[in-house]
Amino acid sequence: MGGDPTLQLRIFDLNCWAIRYLSKRRQERVRLIGDMLRQDSFDLVLLQEVWSEQDYSNLKGKLGGCYPFSHYFHSGVIGSGLCVFSRFPILDTLLYQYSLNGYPYMLQHGDWFCGKSVGLIITKISGIVFNVYVTHLHAEYCREKDVYLPHRLVQAWELAQFIRHTSKAADVVLLGGDLNMHPGDVGIRLLRSWTGLRDAFAEATRFEGCEDGCTLIPNNCFTVKTELLPFPLGIRIDYILYKAMSSVTVKCEELKTTTGTAPGMDIPFSDHEAVMATLHIQRQGQAVGDNLGTAEPMLVDVVTEARTEVVVGLRAAQRQRYSTGRMVVLALLLLLLQAAAALGALAGLAAGQPFPKLSFSLLAFLAIGVLLLATGLHLFHTMEVKMLQGTEEQMRMALRALQERP
């Protein structure tokens, strides 16, 4: 790229589906991903679901000659799974963990244990400062009854706020990741309208890959076919979004997706298709400045719609907090009743009646277990209520500011 004011940046984004010990043929797929990235000349590689740090270390060792700079973002119990490989020096990094990440007791989903986050790296290429964000939002699991929608909207709002407040010194903003939202969903509309980010798929001059840019497709052997029955072509939930912040213009020349199995193999790289974008970046004489990407009346509608969904989630969380609070009270009453019964039984020992130690011990353990579980759930849902209330208040303030603008 040198000192040429016109740059061409190639970006690769993939949800690697690399769950430690559980993903099908994980090590083989990670090796295939590394081989493919070595053969192709991307400038930035954004990966999600690399939860095994050993996989990251293996990739780093394999890609070191092509991508000398990399960073792995740590968070949660099993890790954020986010990492970046770059041909250019990484000047700074930052990680923000979302305040809501699902439910710890939903073990079959496990999103809470990942500590869903957004990672930021800052790099400079030919004098142009890039803020590069990589993220993975909470999965949907059931579109008809999406209990995680309020959490995902909180994440989308926090992601938008994080980008706006950390990108003021950047020339170009790039975001890649598995957003787990369809292009028309309220969360993606909120993110794009609040930040002004543009969708590489919608803006691309040329496109090659799966129809409609889908990244979760039925003919991928690792996807759950029943979840895609309403969508015969698949769904698009992986994105590369971008925005020029100053005296720079950015255009997407080409967007590609992988289309199934890896070359010469019987398996794909992941259950998601990779997204590859080629961006044309050029300096201009006049600063563009930071602005919202959507007209304010439309932005008001989007924020209002998102706030309504957050309020629905808030009411559900308040009901859960109330139910778990009642469980705590009932468990305490049960312990008090046992204590009273135990005192009565001990008083009856003088009359020669035996003390039922085993029964009292079992009941005591049961009551204590229920008390501890209920207390933990009550504390969790109390925090959930506070986070949802905080986001709702932020959205309300944002709406007031938008409506008061002349």
From TrEMBL:
Q: What are the protein's UniProt keywords?
A: Hydrolase, Lipid metabolism, Magnesium, Membrane, Metal-binding, Sphingolipid metabolism, Transmembrane, Transmembrane helix
What compartments host this protein?
Membrane
The pathway this protein participates in, as annotated, is: Lipid metabolism; sphingolipid metabolism; Sphingolipid metabolism
- Ranges where the Endonuclease/exonuclease/phosphatase domain occurs: 15-272
Q: Which Gene Ontology molecular function entries are recorded, alphabetically?
A: metal ion binding; sphingomyelin phosphodiesterase activity
Catalysed transformations (reactions): an N-(acyl)-sphingosylphosphocholine + H2O = an N-acyl-sphingoid base + phosphocholine + H(+); 1-hexadecanoyl-sn-glycero-3-phosphocholine + H2O = 1-hexadecanoyl-sn-glycerol + phosphocholine + H(+); a sphingosylphosphocholine + H2O = a sphingoid base + phosphocholine + H(+); 1-O-octadecyl-sn-glycero-3-phosphocholine + H2O = 1-O-octadecyl-sn-glycerol + phosphocholine + H(+)
Would you tell me the Gene Ontology cellular component terms? membrane
Could you tell me the EC number(s) of this protein?
3.1.4.12
**Protein topology in the membrane:** Multi-pass membrane protein
Give me the segments passing through the membrane.
Answer: 328-352, 358-380
Swiss-Prot/TrEMBL GO biological process terms: sphingolipid metabolic process
**Which cofactors are reported in the record for this sequence?**
Mg(2+)
Q: Give the top-level enzyme category.
A: hydrolase
User: What is the similarity comment for this entry?
Assistant: Belongs to the neutral sphingomyelinase family.
What is the name of the protein in this document? Answer: Sphingomyelin phosphodiesterase 2
Q: Which organism is it from?
A: Pampusana beccarii
